[in-house]
Each structure stands twice: as structure tokens, then as C-alpha cells.
Design goal:
Blueprint lengths: L1 E7 L3 H12 L4 E4 L7 H4 L3 E2 L2 E2 L4 E2 L3 H19 L4 E9 L3 H12 L5 E3 L16 E10 L1 H14 L3 E2 L8 E4 L2 E4 L2 E8 L19 E9 L8 E4 L1 E5 L5 E5 L13 H14 L5 E10 L8 E4 L6 E5 L5 H18 L13 H7 L2
Parallel strand pairs: 1-2, 1-12, 2-9, 6-14, 12-19
Antiparallel strand pairs: 3-8, 4-5, 6-8, 7-8, 10-11, 11-12, 13-16, 13-17, 14-15, 15-16, 18-19
Helix pairs in contact: 1-7, 3-7
This protein binds flavin-adenine dinucleotide.
Flavin-adenine dinucleotide (FAD) binds next to helix 1, helix 2, strand 13, strand 17 and helix 7.
Length: 355
């Protein structure tokens, strides 16, 4: 079998890369091992325009957020699913200082940070002492719907191999690569934190980050907003179900969920919610984060048949559609990649890796 592109991974990066290649009528095959706890499969899906304790506008928000909103609507229309919904984050201030800091951002006319008109609105189901504000527009990408729907379409079109990719079977050929009985012009790695182990990319400054979440049934909590107080409580498409998390661990000994996270999160929920809740599931995943918090996109500087779309860190839902689209424009039409995301910024170190 010959294809133009062999894509490794169908998380959110591989999904968007294959989507834009398909739109251009380019042949491809995706290999994915369906890892149940991959970053994309346990993410909340939040597309948030601000970050950190000071609610700073995220990198390229004005460009990336509208792009993502349109892209998810478009893929949802094609697959006949709701792939995205618009929400508001209600940010409950954990201290008077955080309240001051938030209101300062409002005074500075941040386009995404707003004061909330009715401070007592959430009193009957939440405990909070220092008021609340609004962050909007915010989106939720419904990855629990989108990833299986895209997987189903790839399966039906026989564009998906559901197995573990084995690097030992990869061969460099004069006009591309071969992998068992598949030949391709290029192979693109969209395999999340796995990429950090491959010889072509193991010198990239990956900084894998572990995050955990609880799936919680909170039947009496209105699903219209995302609620934030130290952690996020995010409504899922199943009525009554909420995603609760997360933590950010730069150092970890194993990939499993931890007792500490579960106990701490349950305790926070008990203190915050005035209504009953039941924990249904507890999962952990590894975010493909990078030291300088920018993605890795492009073709290897010395191996023209090998590329990467990765390093999405904590923001894969917003970054992946934009950069998959940009990457396809680069591959097919020679368009320029954003220099802050282009993997060629590591040309020197990557060239050293391959003799
Ligand atoms: C707890 C948690 C919460 C998060 N919440 C958010 C959020 O709200 N918003 C947001 O934008 N981001 C969030 N993230 C980050 C987000 O999940 C990542 O940025 C994004 O999912 C990365 O997607 P990816 O496709 O690049 O990699 P991955 O999701 O890791 O996908 C890689 C894919 O490759 C496959 N694969 C790997 N190795 C192989 C192999 N050898 N052979 C075959 N297949 C392979 C895996 O099965 C997987 O399908 C969160 C992450 C965590 C852990």
C-alpha cells in the first residue's frame, strides 16, 4: 500500500492533521494504538483565552480561538456531531487578593475577563466567600464525541491501522519511508509524549507533564457554565456528569492515578459543593508539554521524510486545529510555519542527533 502521509497517533493532533489532508484530497493512513488514557482521551477539552493566576491572555488567542471555534463546528457538521460548545467560566475567587487581581484585569479592559453582575447567583449550590467573575468566550471541544467519530470514519474508509507503531520496522527509502508493507512519502509523528523516545526527536526539549481528573456525577449542578475554584468543574455531554481537575506534575514515578489527587480533590469538592456528588472514575494522562511552552511542528531538518506535529502541552484543543492547518499549508503549498512553533528552531540540536 502506498500513501502520501503515514500519521502516527490519532489524538487531537493526528485527528486534525488527517482532517486537513483529507480536505486537500491527499492520501494518508493513520496508525493508532487506542491508548485509553492518552492525553486527548482524558482532557477536559477547554479552550480558554486566559491563563495563570493573573489571567494573562494566552499566546495567539485572538487568532487561535476564533479559528478553533470555526474548525470544530466544521468537523462537527461533517461528522454530524456536536464537536464544540461555547461556555463561560465562572471564576470563584479563593482569596481577596485573587479577587483584586481579577478586577484589575477587568479595569485594564481585558477582552476576556469580566465582572459578574449577580454575586449571589450561585449561593444555593456552591460555597464561596470572595465573589466571582466571568471568563468568556470559552469553548469546550467535545473530544469524547469527536475522537471516536473521526476514528469511526477513518475505519470505514480503511484509513486506520489500530495497532502499536514499532520504530524498528521503519526504513528510510530513496523516496520516503517504508513500514512493513506500507510506503509513504512522509511519516508524521502525532503520538504525543511517545515522540520523546524516538531517535529523531529525543533531543527536543519535551517536558512531559502528568495530569489527573475525576469523572463526577453532580445531578443538581446546572450544566451551563464551567466552574473554577482552584480546579475546574466542566460539564460533559452526558447530563449530570462533570469533568473535575486537574493537577500539573512535572516529576512523577508512574503513569497511574494517585491516591493524593483523589483525596485532595474530593475534599475540595466537599468544601465547595452544597449538593451531593459521586465520583465515577479517576484517570491520569501525560501532557506532551515542552520546556518553552511552544509546540513542535514541521519536517526534521536532516530527514525530509520525517515530520512532527506535537508539543501541544496544556492547550492541544486550541492549538491543534490551527497548527495542523498551518502544517498542511506548509507541506502542500510551501507556506511559512510560525517560527515560534517550527521545529526547525532546533535545527542545530536535531542535526547533531542524526549522523
Ligand atoms: C488531565 C488533563 C487535562 C487536560 N485538559 C485540557 C483542556 O481542557 N484543554 C486543552 O486544550 N488541553 C488539555 N489537556 C492537554 C491535551 O490533552 C493535550 O494537549 C493534547 O491532547 C495532546 O494531543 P496529541 O494528539 O498531540 O497527543 P495525545 O493525546 O497523547 O495523542 C497521541 C495518540 O497517539 C497514540 N500513540 C502513542 N504512541 C503510539 C504508538 N507507538 N503506536 C500507535 N499509536 C500511538 C495514542 O494512543 C494517542 O491516540 C489536558 C491534559 C490532561 C492530561
Amino acid at each position: 500500500m502506498h500513501v502520501d502521509y503515514l500519521i502516527i497517533g490519532q489524538g487531537i493532533s493526528g485527528t486534525w492533521l488527517s482532517y486537513y489532508l483529507q480536505k486537500e484530497g491527499i492520501s494518508f493512513l493513520v496508525i493508532d494504538d487506542n491508548a485509553p488514557h492518552s492525553s486527548s482521551r482524558i482532557a477536559a477539552g477547554i479552550i480558554n483565552p486566559v491563563t495563570g493566576r493573573r489571567h494573562v491572555t494566552v499566546w495567539m488567542a485572538d487568532e487561535i480561538l476564533p479559528f478553533a471555534a470555526t474548525a470544530y463546528k466544521e468537523i462537527g457538521f461533517e461528522l454530524d456531531i456536536a464537536a464544540i460548545s461555547q461556555k463561560t467560566i465562572i471564576d470563584f475567587f479563593p482569596s481577596p487578593q485573587m479577587r483584586e487581581s481579577f478586577l484589575q484585569r477587568v479595569d485594564e479592559n481585558s477582552p476576556y475577563v469580566h465582572s459578574y453582575p449577580e454575586q449571589n447567583h450561585f449561593n444555593h449550590f456552591l460555597n464561596y466567600d470572595f465573589g466571582c467573575g466571568e471568563i468568556r468566550p470559552v469553548y469546550i471541544a467535545h473530544l469524547d464525541t469527536l475522537l471516536p467519530a473521526w476514528q469511526k470514519q477513518l475505519r470505514q474508509k480503511q484509513l486506520l491501522l489500530e495497532e502499536k507503531f514499532n520504530i524498528d520496522a521503519l526504513r528510510m527509502e530513496a523516496r520516503g519511508i517504508s513500514y512493513h508493507d506500507i510506503t509513504a512519502r512522509k511519516i508524521i509523528f502525532c503520538d504525543g509524549s511517545s515522540s520523546a523516545q524516538w531517535p529523531f526527536f529525543n533531543l527536543l526539549p519535551f517536558a512531559p507533564n502528568k495530569g489527573e481528573m475525576l469523572l463526577v456525577d453532580i445531578p443538581d449542578l446546572p450544566p451551563h457554565n464551567i466552574y473554577k475554584k482552584g480546579m475546574m468543574v466542566v460539564p460533559l455531554t452526558t447530563p449530570g456528569l462533570f469533568w473535575v481537575g486537574s493537577n500539573y506534575a512535572w516529576e512523577f514515578d508512574h503513569m497511574d492515578p494517585t491516591k493524593e489527587f483523589r483525596l485532595r480533590t474530593e475534599q475540595l469538592l466537599r468544601e465547595w459543593l452544597k449538593i451531593p456528588f459521586t465520583v465515577i472514575e479517576h484517570l491520569a494522562g501525560i501532557r506532551p508539554a515542552t520546556l518553552e511552552r511552544r509546540p513542535f511542528i514541521g519536517i526534521h531538518p536532516t530527514k525530509p521524510a520525517i515530520g512532527i506535529l506535537n508539543g501541544m502541552g496544556t492547550k492541544g484543543c486550541s492549538l491543534a486545529p490551527f497548527f495542523a492547518h498551518q502544517f498542511v499549508g506548509h507541506l502542500l503549498h510551501g507556506k511559512t510555519l510560525n517560527p515560534e512553533a517550527d521545529v526547525n528552531r532546533f535545527r542545530k540540536i536535531l542535526s547533531r542527533n542524526i549522523s
